[in-house]
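Q: Is it fine to ask for two folds in a single conversation?
A: Yes, each is treated on its own. Send the first.
Q: Here.
A: Result:
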Amino acid sequence: MPRMACASAAVRATRKGLRIKSVVRGDEVVASWRAEKHHEAFAGALSGGIAGTLLDCHANWTAAYHLMRRSAASLPPCTVTAEYAVKPGHPAYHRW
């Protein structure tokens, strides 16, 4: 299966999207992503909205992939997130 990535018109226009990549490895869908300076909420801390978007995007692709496999389809179905919640306990710090 090809790589899957979340994208939008705004991302394509600005070229500053998340660029998260979700790749199938065996029975798992694994995400890779690298934080950049513009993903900060404040110096050295990842924006909570970015963290939530990463989880939402990867979970959506993972669900779509597993639905595709279950139905033996050649393409993943269109899926959307009905609900999710993120409750961060503390900031996610990053060294640039």
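Q: Second one now.
A: Result:
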Amino acid sequence: MGPPTIGDRMGRYRKPRIRHPLRTGYSLGSQRSIHTGTLAARQSLNRPDTLLAAEIPILRPVTSDNYRLSTALFWLMTALVVAPTIAEGQAYCSLRDPNRIVQELFPEATGFRSFLRKVTPADARTLKTDLALDFDSREFTTHTLYAVLQNDKILGYVQSRTEAVEWGLAEIIWVLDADLNLAAFRFQRCRSRWKANVEDDSLQTQLKGLSETELLDLWKTKGAKGFRKEANLPDSADKLIEAVIISGLKATGLARIVWGDDIMNIRNSLASTEGQ
């Protein structure tokens, strides 16, 4: 072989080239695990630039798969943040298990019909004029009234109302008779220690059979203290009793305002069926 040329000498002493991340469109990260700066990492790469490459983060190109993964993670995190808010709006004033609850409240029932209607601020203003009741903004959503049937006969109506109290949310299931008078109530959710006492027969007896107007008159004259004294409960139960009375007024008032047409239609439909 002849003597080395000038080009050979230059190639022998050529400096290693390092690709710069800002000039190549690469991003940080790697699927390989390399401990930068260690002897093992330097020995794993049999190239002239091993020493320098081991001292900087390993780079990998931004691929379409990486982009799709990042996008999916973004929308997943967005859903986790937004979903609880949506769920809360949907669950407010809802009956959690209609089939089971209706069967427990009306053992003789053969079925029921459900009517979905949205409670609006206009409905609230109407009820506030009639009954002077305040509404939570979360109540302005879709609600359901259940008409419970025994063949072609209406046994009563069921709906759930939610009141914000000092212990959180009190969810109250109301049973109305065929004439929209109060028949009974039970708590679907309540954290008050007086839940069982308030739900007891004493207050139930006071409320049973009252119309919307009669309940309002008693509320004005007796107040929560009057109902509580007749139920023989301590002063600390006043707040929960107050929430129950307000909830009962809303249950009867909204049945009249929001579902009035539905109630009239099902009454007429069943009456015509019975006459045939």
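Q: Anything structural to flag on that second result?
A: Two points. The radius of gyration is 35 Å. DSSP finds 13 helices and seven strands in the chain.
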